[in-house]
Design goal:
The chain is mainly alpha-helical. About 45% of the residues lie in helices and about 5% in strands. It folds into three domains: about 130 residues, Orthogonal Bundle (Fumarate Reductase Iron-sulfur Protein, Chain B, domain 2), CATH 1.10.1060; about 160 residues, Rossmann fold, CATH 3.40.50; about 140 residues, no CATH class. The protein has 23 helices and seven strands.
């Protein structure tokens, strides 16, 4: 690990709200997308000539389209309840990383152009013109928000800063100011089918290699099928599962579960990506284009069920948007959506999370488990933001909190939760979600991870926890990178299905 060029926050026994340090993170600016990257996803290649007018027009467009956006801009009473709830403020002390201040960057311009008082008495109501300086601050601070929604849990009006951030990014993209990391990935997934730009033959090689590894390890021929027409299940999983560590361990876990349950399944080379970064830039059309690849694959392969692997924002998009976006679940009613709804088996949720699938099999005793195989691990669970605050699982309230923990307890003997105020709907973001998982934002990522690292440190000290399980590809990649900055070993990071993989007992006869 190269020496950091910034100060790493110290882990404290009792978490404290930091002293305010104005502009502490004003120097942070994520790399901007080049013209080819922008144009590949349909945005102007550079800042358009009449950008101020265009940005205000776009804001008006979004205010008309998304009622929530207007309500959030109007409803804030500046009560301050959200100020100390953002991990980026807690890790940096920069007051512009307080959720209310992040909102205010857009709200002040909204007031100037869309309210009577702001038009005629701007100074009285804190209304501002959209200057280049304000625009630059939008870029800096809307790419220091992971759209985690934690602040909204504590706001008495439920104001969701994540939606304001998405609107800010959408306006920026529309006038030619995009982020390199997110928009480059969006281009790759639209062109090739996954975030990594991994072509079909490379995927085939990777899966064959994994099959050999599993057989060498267990003596059992477990398959990872690709593009298998007529399979019952299409598994849509983040492309990081195909080759990143520790992600691949969970992919092996899914394969073992399908194998032992005797349920035919397939991956798709056309839709080899669960991630949908269209959510991060608040762009519905981009999100739909990416989701359409999954519908195409499901129709082409003739599957009966669609199951989603361990990926936080992907599950949010799948659970909350796929129905109206593309008809996976009731919602969209174009001919292909209707065809797919008729094709999918109505006895199962569409879509279904891999944890729901595995939990059901465990409850019914379909899987042979030896919990002691995980006895070298003392496990805690990190709730991922988009699963916790943007979706559900199962048919019970809070199922997204219960089901992953129940799986862990069914496959491992040692489990300890982190402090109550840092889990479930109050979970702290890993610090790398929502388009922040890029090395040019490493300072934001490391500092934003502080609250989670402090909560982890407590269970490490009190219970000797040595494994933090999670169900998100971004969380895994983020923690792998930032935990060494806090003195933790990256081998502590892993998936829930990595634990399942360790505990499941396969027999050569299966
Ligand atoms: S959504 Fe999350 S990252 Fe964004 S301001 Fe709120 S708490 Fe901070
Ligand atoms: S908690 Fe809600 S109402 Fe209070 S300052 Fe924050 S956003 Fe505004």
């Amino acid at each position: 690990m190269a020496a950091p060029t910034f100060e790493i926050p110290k882990l404290k026994d009792v978490s404290v709200v930091p002293a305010v340090q104005p502009d502490a993170m004003a120097h942070i600016k994520s790399f901007q997308a080049s013209a080819p990257i922008q144009e590949a996803v349909g945005f102007p290649g550079q800042l358009v000539d009449n950008w101020e007018q265009k940005a205000i027009e776009k804001m008006g467009d979004l205010l008309g389209k998304y009622r929530s956006f207007k309500v959030y801009l109007d409803a804030c009473v500046h009560c301050g309840a959200c100020t100390d709830k953002c991990h980026y403020f807690l890790g940096t002390g920069d007051p512009k990383n307080m959720p209310v201040a992040r909102q205010e960057l857009i709200r002040s311009v909204y007031r100037r152009h869309f309210t009577f008082a702001g038009k005629y008495f701007p100074k009285l109501v804190g209304a501002k013109d959209l200057t280049k300086d304000v625009l630059d601050q939008w870029y800096n601070y809307y790419y220091q928000c992971s759209e985690c929604r934690r602040c909204s849990v504590f706001c008495p009006y439920g104001i969701d800063t994540a939606e304001i951030t998405m609107a800010g990014r959408e306006i920026l993209d529309s006038i030619g100011v995009g982020q390199k990391y997110t928009n480059e990935i969006l281009g790759k997934v639209q062109r090739i089918g996954n975030n990594l730009g991994l072509p079909g033959p490379a995927l085939t090689d990777t899966l064959e290699g994994l099959e050999e590894d599993i057989e060498a390890d267990t003596g059992v021929a477990v398959r990872l099928p690709l593009d298998q027409k007529g399979a019952e299940v299409l598994l849509i999983t983040p492309s990081a599962d195909f080759f990143s560590e520790p992600h691949v361990e969970s992919l092996i876990g899914y394969a073992k579960v399908f194998h032992q349950a005797g349920i035919s399944w397939t991956l798709s080379s056309h839709a080899a990506e669960a991630g949908n970064f269209g959510l991060f830039i608040g762009n519905y059309e981009t999100m739909r284009n990416i989701a359409l690849r999954i519908r195409d694959a499901a129709l082409e392969l003739g599957v009966k069920r669609i199951i989603v692997g361990e990926c936080g924002h992907a599950w949010r998009v799948a659970y909350s948007f796929w129905n109206t976006l593309v008809g996976i679940g009731a919602g969209a009613n174009d001919p292909f959506a209707i065809q797919l709804q008729q094709q999918l088996d109505p006895r199962y949720p569409a879509p279904q999370h891999i944890c729901e699938f595995t939990y059901d099999l465990l409850q019914r005793g379909v899987l042979t488990i030896d919990k002691s195989a995980n006895d070298h691990r003392i496990v805690t669970f990190h709730d991922s933001c988009n699963v916790s605050r943007g979706s559900r699982m199962g048919d019970m309230p809070g199922g997204q909190f219960v089901i992953p923990r129940e799986i862990i307890k069914m496959v491992a003997n040692n489990f300890h939760d982190m402090a109550a105020e840092t889990i479930n709907e109050s979970t702290f973001c890993c610090g790398g979600g929502g388009g922040i998982l890029t090395d040019d934002l490493i300072e934001v990522r490391v500092k934003g991870a502080l609250p989670r690292m402090e909560a982890l440190n407590h269970v490490v000290k009190d219970h000797k926890v040595n494994f933090m399980a999670m169900i998100c590809a971004i969380c895994k990649a983020q923690f792998n990178k930032v935990m060494p900055f806090y003195g933790f070993d990256m081998s502590m990071v892993g998936g829930v299905h990595q634990l399942v993989s360790t505990a499941i007992q396969l027999s050569p006869k299966e």
